[in-house]
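Case study B.
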Amino acid sequence: MKKHALALLLALLLLLAPALSAGCAPDGGDGETSPTPDEAGQTPAGSVEGAAEKDKIVIGGVRSQSGVYALFDETAFGPIYRMWAGEVNADGGIYVEEYGKKLPVELIIYDDKSEMDTMTRLYEKLILEDKVDLLLPPVSTAALFAAAQIANQHDYLLIGAEGAAVSIKENIESYPGFFCTLNFSDTQVPALTEVLTEGGIESAFIVYIEDLHGMEYSQAAVPAFEAAGIEIKGNVSVPPDIGDMTPIINSAKNSGAQAFLMFAYPDQNFLAVSQAKELGYNPDVFFIGSGGSFDSCKLALGGDEGVEGIMTWGAWNEKSSDAAAEFAERFREFNAGDDTVFADWWGHLPYYVSVQVLQQAIERAGTLDNKVLREYIAENKFDTVMGEAWFENHMLAAECYLGNVGQWQNGVYEVIDVGGNRTAEPVIPKSAWK
Amino acid sequence: MGNPGLRLDMKKSVPFAIVAAALAAVAFLPRFASAYSVVFCSSVIMYAALSLSYAMFSGPTGYVSLATAAFFGVGIYTSAFFGKSLPLPALMIAGGVFSSVIAFAVGAITLRLRGVYFTIFTFGLVELLKHFVLWTETTFAGTRGRTVASFGSVTVFYCMLALLTALLLAAFLLRRSRVGKALSAIGESEDAAAHIGINTTAVKLLAFSLSSFAMGAAGAVMATRWAYIDPGIAFNSLMSFMPALMAIFGGTDRLLGPVAGAIVFAALEEQLITRFPSLYMIIFGAIMIAAILFMPSGVTGLIRRRPAKRKEDVPVGDS
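Model:
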């Protein structure tokens, strides 16, 4: 027994030896991943190696590959940054003028287990120990807030992907290197209100998840709807771990509201759809939030027929523009054969814009210096899959988006915003569930 | 009689000196080690403090408490509320005091519960506080999360180190005090302890409040590194399980057991999650199972088992 135990302890120590030695290596030590700081003693991003030896751009990110947010790295920004890195490297890399050559991209992605302490610590590891050139954002709004602060402390640039919130704008001034590309409530709620009023909707029942995302959409929707003359017949919050929506669906049904709106995440949204079908609840408008724009939601909700008429946040599709169609085609080709990756008709375009902006800023500014890049990004316009794109107060300008509200029609995700972005007329009232 | 007593003191002062020297050496870390080492060590020290405070109460009494995350979360919210107006050491103390007060109030009602009932209650406490904070925040403040002021990684490091040092001292003194002996007696047999005149509820309450002080203080310090918190982040039940596992892994019989457990666990986690992310949980779980099977008294129990036996066999004066 003791022999086993001692052997186990020895094996453990062996496993730990590199951890302890790496953890205690001084700055600029001999560790494999501890590059030497420059002569000025500074360790600006982009100084992984001397200019002469620089042979790659190292980009680091802490992503939730396990835990509650794992779905987002699997389906949202995850497929996008992997596709982009693959494309860049197939093309020989990104041309960086200060090094006079194309440099391929190397990704260092750590898993934070969807946990805050691990996330913040691993960003510090990426910056201080791995000395990556550039950062990729973490998953979720809360994690973005925290990562933005760390990036800011070390003068790194951080362009957000999943997650964004109006409340982030309150602090945006203190994070000069932080940019957001995803559209959220302040552009989407007005667009939805227009669609509902145009469709003759006069009453609504709102259900929202008790978190930053849900509260923000609810707080934006209630005054916007009321101002547009839509009566709020219910505004109910649900916890993230809700397992039965029956009482809520029933009270929505009894309220007689014309529109049912669910501002939550895929788990709760899909549950609401399934239980509404079971209870025979089919209001004129059935709206769900995050997850509804994923092609994969058809798998969960019964194919093209199962999602028919559902409205969600978005929005873009292949009819939006030639660039969008070409992007959708490339995405399909890149992921051909992988039946776990699906298109997201809300986020995929803005996420791809975030890496395109990064790449174009490097190519045009000719440097990997994050301070120069952030100035360049704040002041310039970029040619992207969404057309010309630029930032206003660190947020992608509202005019850049190809849509804010979508509806599933005959298996196609249609953009139904009032105005020029519309790819199909909204169907209100929606047809009966199938 | 004086001679063996002197030898005993000498014997005891050697590990004491080693621990003091180790803490002093760690204090110089920011001077010679890399900036990331300081960040990493702050996390290790946090886990050490949490698992040591867990072991302070649960070790001798055998009461498995899963309330660590609740008190840690109270500390986090202390920093979220007062972080912009108080210095970090004051936040740390405030976090500790708030946690102790809550622990005292909760303990006074629940420490009459025993065994699995107590464990389930403490686990429920984390959820209760999470939802209570969520409700008050959404109802009265109209928000879900809060930003937390930052104090820099070196300040965080020194505050955590000071906390661990104070905690080690407190745990050391507690073990040797009448309360410490009473706690051990409760662990052996609570009924017998009550029969010999120990006010078991009062003793448990004291130890529970004391251990929760460190949990709250650690939460208050670590929150400043996270920039943004919400009830889900602050009251994360993982923070209840990790310190308990670390303490079991290191061994709760010895003072330094939980600290050793935390160091090994945290270093192991760092290695596995960055080098073998997909195998992380499998390897982690396998090691935990093996440790419980082969090292029931933890790492420190294994190392010190032989000398301890010899001491029992051989009369003190003869060695």
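The longest strand of chain A covers residues 231-238. The remaining cases will be described in the next quarterly update.
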